[in-house]
């Protein structure tokens, strides 16, 4: 019942705002046909909500209906709620309400059309004396959160285009850091050829994200376990190397780097299947007093919260790759709602061992490490790269394009 509270509250507000605007503006001024048309969006919302409530076939099968429900809500109902509230402001309320409502409609229409189609390629150079000489120029491509079920209908072609972009980088290693699906591995079948076409010298390594455990389908335990195993197996069928709390060594000309991958670990309510001790394994005996490996280490963990709360107390990787946040698929003048929920939500974050605070005013960092986000030109011993995603639960993005991240290693002499 608690989970129904928010949609019931929003629908109640929709009904109140529709009734208010109808009585004040539509009924006295509009022709008869417009009066009937006025109630159509609310009727669609109520019909779909009733369908979910009484004839629910499950999230996976209801994906299209859910998207229609959300689209009608944000495109019609939310603007009317905002207008109704703002219209009570004396003198300027109605004008302000119209402006805000139109702005919301523009953001939604742009986000589901041009916004979701955009893909950016971001380049990062990681220069460190810990990069082995044989790995100078080594190119790692990071992508995450494909939420493959969202690439359907008018968006279906975008997945192959995006994968072509990955291959165009000529990577040495490709790392996918979780959430390949929305609900189940059934979403992956139509795109098997596309995912299998990703090529890299040292292959593709992948880990599980919170959506990859079929938790949101609320299946009986045995069915859920079967779904999870199928998600793992399908990714392996692409030729990808699934890291399940384990590590790999990549060797070149007598030098090597370590890749450590763990299952999803997030702060509640997200699942905590990650076992950092198991993932590190025998590497633990080689760590120095600063918890660093003898050679460059690359950590794959889906949720960026794991870096601070789960990974660094045990091992300090040179590079950590995460995703999960999507940047909430929305940005405005450099700000994203994700910044209110995550300390590291998107971009590059560098950790300086010689800094006991944070230049940006955030001092509550574990182990007296200072995290300097985005810009730190002096010393870059440790990098957290948080991808804002390759897809999205809902096909919408505004000023937060889908992205592919290319990290080039540079040996510092």
Number of helices: 10
Low-confidence stretches: 353-379
Terminal CA distance: 61 Å
- What overall form do the CA principal axes indicate? elongated
Secondary structure: elements and pairs:
Blueprint lengths: L1 H28 L2 H7 L1 H15 L8 H24 L6 H25 L1 E10 L10 E5 L12 H13 L4 E4 L15 H5 L7 E3 L14 H17 L3 E2 L3 E7 L2 E7 L14 H5 L16 E4 L4 H7 L7 E4 L24 E6 L17 E4 L8 E5 L15 E10 L2
Parallel strand pairs: 1-13, 2-3, 3-4, 4-5, 7-8, 8-9, 9-12
Antiparallel strand pairs: 2-13, 6-7, 10-11, 10-12
Helix pairs in contact: 1-4, 3-4, 4-5
Can you tell me about this structure?
It is a single chain. The protein is an alpha/beta fold and 413 residues long. Helices cover 35% and strands 17% of the residues. It is built from 10 helices and 13 strands. The protein has a 7-stranded mixed beta sheet with strand order 6-7-8-9-12-10-11. Helix 8 links the parallel strand 4 and strand 5 (241-242). Helix 1 packs across helix 4 (63-86) and helix 3 crosses helix 4. The relative contact order is 0.13. Mean pLDDT is 89; it is low at 353-379.
Annotation keywords:
10 helices; 35% helix; elongated; seven-stranded mixed β-sheet; 13 strands; 413 residues; alpha/beta; single chain
How is this structure best summarized?
The chain is of the alpha/beta class.
